[in-house]
Amino acid sequence: MLEDQGMAMWVKDGVLVDPLRGVAEERDLIIEGGKVQRILPRGELKDPGPRLKIIDAFGKVIIPGLIDMHVHLREPGHEHKETIFTGSRAGVAGGFTGLACMPNTEPVNDSPWVTRFILERAREAGLLSVYPIAAITRGQRGERLTDFSELRRAGAVGVSDDGRPVFDGEVMRMALESAREHGLTLVSHCEDLGLSAGGVMHESDVSKQMGLKGIPAASEEVMVQRDISLAKLTGCPFHVAHVSTAGSVALIKRAKEESVPVTAETAPHYFTLDHTAVIGYNTNAKMNPPLRSAEDVEAVKNGLSEGVIDAIATDHAPHSPLEKEVAFDKAAFGIIGLETAVPLTMALVRGGVLTMPSAIRKLSLNPATILGVSGGVLAEGSSADLAIIDPEGEFVLEASHIHSKSKNSPFIGKRLKGKNTLTMRGGQIVWERDSEYPGR
After folding, report:
1. For residue 32, what are the contacts with CB-CB under 8 A and spacing of at least 6?
2. What is the extent of the structural domain holding 416?
3. Does a cis peptide bond (omega within 30 degrees of 0) precede residue 50?
């Protein structure tokens, strides 16, 4: 049973992170009617009275509910990997109160009825907000644009052919112009399919030693440059998905310096692991774009630190053992990430790459702003969408503890530091560690 939204709560003795102002301060929160009613200096409230449920946040950090702008929920069509309910459950366990789901379902989300189906399933799950991202082209074939107007009315917040690029430059130009006209965020999967064809990992000495066909960094970078050029031509904004290379970071930095309307995301695995993680033919380290070199990892970190990369998104891509427990070159691309995003990002904070407010901004406020949805801020009068994390809490990630339906993570068995302890959406506790809430 979810907490009654009408129950008043006192979140006390925590450090409140405000990504908008870029500060972290000792504050108490009073929550009632689904909203943050008051924010007080710690210790100012002396007698809460019997009506307030007390949530002790001592030693913990109170953050706006995280928003993941790039996940694969697999429903409809691939429910053996994930469903909207199980993906939502994994999301709230990880501290997320909003997920933007990509369109490569079966059928593809290229029509209003699929968009409405996703939203209905999300309402039934009742754990967090799901924001459908519909396909740019019909069937994600890169040929004919979908009806952006109808998809927007059905509830889509963006468009992408993620999993495949829009290879035809004229089609992409029309997509950029139509997305701007209809208020949709265009998320670009930047990959030259000719350069990456048959590749299964980063092209390098490691791929040669393993006898595997590589995917060169240029396969991403030439398409990043193409889309930057189209954005300059049209004046239309676009967002680069899953940035993985130093060259892409440099191109995006230069574009921003020239006031090209581009934003970008990376995923935690691109600033945590390099291509040596696939040694031993570890299929849980196989993804697209692939894990890159150590130099690329450092460039991605610098891109985050310098503000070139705006958002951290998981690219949560669940697969069953049927797709992963096979020969490396036959295995599916992708890993899950909703439940490891917080600890992997906290490592950047401990390492001085990001401050706590800037890290949380890239996980909440910036994704919300790019997608044009609410969230990412905790202020008096705002919706009580929040998470309480223990940045020093350590745990070993076990497959049995993962809430996602799939367990394809290279971090299983690893000791991680930084964990979510409670997630609240609209004043309702939707997940709490060691409790009986539905997200458990």
Report:
1. 6, 7, 8, 9, 427
2. 8-62+381-432
3. no
Parallel, antiparallel, or unpaired for β 129-134 and 96-101? parallel
Instruction: Determine whether 315 is an active site residue.
Output: yes
CB 263 within 8 A of CB 396: no
Q: Are residues 293 and 400 in the same domain?
A: no
pTM over 0.90: yes
Among residues 18, 68, 296, 315, the one annotated as catalytic is: 315
Residue at 438 is within a domain: no
Residue 85: Cβ within 10 Å count: 19
Residue 364 near residue 399 (C-beta atoms within 8 A): no
Using one digit for the tens of pLDDT, what is the confidence trace for 383-427?
999 999 999 999 999 999 999 999 999 999 999 999 999 999 999
Within-domain flag for 80: yes
Q: What number of helices (H) and strands (E) belong to the chain?
A: 14, 18
Q: How far apart are CA 235 and CA 259, in angstroms?
A: 10
> Rounded to a whole number, what is the distance in angstroms from the first to the last CA of the chain?
12
